[in-house]
Amino acid sequence: MSETPVKQQSTAAFYGQAVASFAVAMAATAIGIFRLNADAWVRGFLAIAVLYLVTSAFTLAKVIRDRQEAGQIVSRVDQARMEKLLAEHDPFEKL
Fold this sequence. Notes:
Elements: H1 12-34, H2 40-88
Helix pairs in contact: 1-2
């Protein structure tokens, strides 16, 4: 069979940087909305809009990841079938 692909995994530093970046962005947005010179309902609307945007971004990222993983699984199954056919094929067999 063919070589097994190495599973790519992000480093702890990359993970930490991503979490820290997300936390800073959310905190800055929350402070900006809180300090905004507007009525409470406007700040509330903006806060809900930001939360909706964040959840939508997480959902989109998950859907894209799931689709990519499903494509890799289908590709592996197709590759295994092809390797099985090639292994069973005898070019010198009489027809």
